[in-house]
């Protein structure tokens, strides 16, 4: 059964505009985008609206419906009372091009700053990469993003502070960083970039982005918070900083990363035990292991190791 729907649609361009009232005849089962198309066909032929798939997968038709960011193609009219006026406005965070169309180029400019996926050499005996299913599931969630940019629209950092767009990438780009940074085969290290260029510290975890995501991606819990922890470890953890000085950088590694191992999975047979005084452990034959300072181990007879030139090896000796 059809009825007359009262609509209030924003009309204008970058110079300014206003909300205009319309009455459109609609039928049961229609969505907001259907009503907009009927308005465009019958009363406002020059109404600008962006859309593509009409199936909730392209993210093109995002707009604010009664003040809430929604995909117009996935917002059914029966969510509203027949007597209720539906107000449709463009996304507030981005500059208006015309009517309901906004300029979202900011998101693509920020995306160009993200280092691309850089896998290392395969470590499998058959020449193929290997991944744990838990790692596949983790990054697959982030790949569901349809770039509707509604999360960017509700992020108050860039919505209410135009100057912060230069220093904060926004939740959509944080998910892009998470997709790459948490991939076990990737060798790039983007943590310094996240802090300095993407401005992850500006996010204060309000979870507004998660609330409006049409793909139900847990943007804050599974993406931004873990990235914050990684950046904090890289920037402020003194033990982690010392470890980075003692080992090659991630970018220099040829082998891809694997799934993280918890301390409960590491046995003493893998790492050896040490007494409280820090004495290195010994194997059952009594052969002492090398300490972290690089002191060489000795054979059971106690003879120190020597280099090919016959010079006894030891700390402080440097090859000429």
What is the fold-level CATH name, i.e. the topology of the largest domain?
Fumarate Reductase Iron-sulfur Protein, Chain B, domain 2
Element pattern in H and E: EEHEEEEEHHHHHHHHHH
The gross shape turns out to be elongated
CATH-scheme architecture of the largest domain: Orthogonal Bundle
User: What is the CATH level 1 assignment of the largest domain?
Assistant: Mainly Alpha
Biggest β-sheet: strands ordered side by side in the sheet: 2-1-5-3-4
Oligomer: single chain
What does this structure look like?
- Mean pLDDT is 82; it is low at 251-320.
- β6 (96-98) and β7 (101-102) form a beta hairpin.
- This protein has 11 helices and 7 strands.
- The chain is elongated, with a radius of gyration of 29 Å.
- It is 28% helix and 12% strand.
- By secondary structure, it is α+β, with helices and mostly antiparallel strands.
- The protein folds into 2 domains: 3-102, Roll (Ubiquitin-like (UB roll)), CATH 3.10.20.30; 105-294, Alpha-helical ferredoxin (Fumarate Reductase Iron-sulfur Protein, Chain B, domain 2, Orthogonal Bundle).
Record keyword descriptors for this entry.
about 10% strand, Ubiquitin-like (UB roll), five-stranded mixed β-sheet, 7 strands, elongated, about 30% helix, 2 domains, about 325 residues, Fumarate Reductase Iron-sulfur Protein, Chain B, domain 2
Nutshell version of this structure?
By secondary structure, this protein is of the alpha+beta class. Helix content is 28%, strand content 12%. The longest helix has 18 residues, at 219-236.
List the helices and strands and how they pair.
Blueprint: E1 3-13, E2 16-26, H1 32-42, E3 62-65, E4 68-71, E5 86-89, E6 96-98, E7 101-102, H2 105-111, H3 133-142, H4 150-154, H5 156-159, H6 171-181, H7 191-196, H8 208-212, H9 219-236, H10 238-246, H11 268-271
Helix pairs in contact: 3-6, 6-9
């Amino acid at each position: 059964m059809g009825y007359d729907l009262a609509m209030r649609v924003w009309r204008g361009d970058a110079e300014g505009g206003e909300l205009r009232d319309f009455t459109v005849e609609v039928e049961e089962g229609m969505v907001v985008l259907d009503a907009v198309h009927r308005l465009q066909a019958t009363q406002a032929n020059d109404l600008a609206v962006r859309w593509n798939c009409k199936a909730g997968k392209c993210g093109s038709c995002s707009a604010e419906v009664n003040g809430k960011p929604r995909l117009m193609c996935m917002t059914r009219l029966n969510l509203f009372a027949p007597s209720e006026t539906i107000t449709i406005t463009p996304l507030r965070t981005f500059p208006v091009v015309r009517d309901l169309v906004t300029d979202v180029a900011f998101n693509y400019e920020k995306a160009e700053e993200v280092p691309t996926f850089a896998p290392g050499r395969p470590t499998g005996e058959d020449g193929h990469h290997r991944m744990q299913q838990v790692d596949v599931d983790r990054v697959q969630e982030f790949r569901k993003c349809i770039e509707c940019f509604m999360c960017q629209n509700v992020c108050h950092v860039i919505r209410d502070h135009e100057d912060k767009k230069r220093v904060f990438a926004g939740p959509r780009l944080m998910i892009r960083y998470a997709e790459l940074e948490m991939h076990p085969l990737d060798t790039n290290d983007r943590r310094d970039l996240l802090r300095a260029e993407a401005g992850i510290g500006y996010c204060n975890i309000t979870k507004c982005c998660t609330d409006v995501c049409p793909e139900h991606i847990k943007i804050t819990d599974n993406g931004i918070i873990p990235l914050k922890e990684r950046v904090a470890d890289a920037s402020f953890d003194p033990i982690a900083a010392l470890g980075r000085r003692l080992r090659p950088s991630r970018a220099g590694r040829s082998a891809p990363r694997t799934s993280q191992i918890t301390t409960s999975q590491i046995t003493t047979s893998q790492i050896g035990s040490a007494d409280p005084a820090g004495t290195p452990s010994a194997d059952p034959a009594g052969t002492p292991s090398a300490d972290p300072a690089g002191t060489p181990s000795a054979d059971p007879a106690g003879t120190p190791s020597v280099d090919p030139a016959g010079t006894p090896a030891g700390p402080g000796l440097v090859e000429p």
